[in-house]
Design a protein that fits this description.
By secondary structure, the protein is of the alpha+beta class. The chain has four helices and seven strands. It has a seven-stranded mixed β-sheet with strand order 1-2-3-4-5-7-6, sandwiched between helices.
Length: 155
Amino acid sequence: MSSARTGYVVRVAESAADREACFGVRREVFVEEQGVPEELEYDAYDAHGAGAVHVLAVRDEDGAALGAGRFLTTGDPGVGALGRLAVRKVARGLGVGAALVGAVEEVARGRGIRAVDLHAQTHAMGFYERLGYVAYGPEFPDAGIPHRAMRKSLR
């Protein structure tokens, strides 16, 4: 997804450099901005070949990383998980987050997934609701930050 209108492209992070760019965005947003301990931010799914599909948004003009997200399959057949969605401050409000969510949903559809779950920081729930996600269950802490589970059926 790239055009003069958006000024960025979203792609699956297939190379080691792309995956490192995803991790850099996550470090900046979650560890530096939000104070999430680095040992909680990165997990076994981040290892190459661990089954996660990372997506990356980069600026058209210079390839600078703007945002990242991650797709995982779950133990529930037909349900996938969107996680680690992060957009750098410089790119917020440009549609990067929505484009990353769309890219994860495209990956999910390509794998026959019928629904995508996520754990939203409560301050970001409106963003996900606008994209069709519905909250369920009680609020819970993750890395000291309030979250709610959300799900979207893919049609």
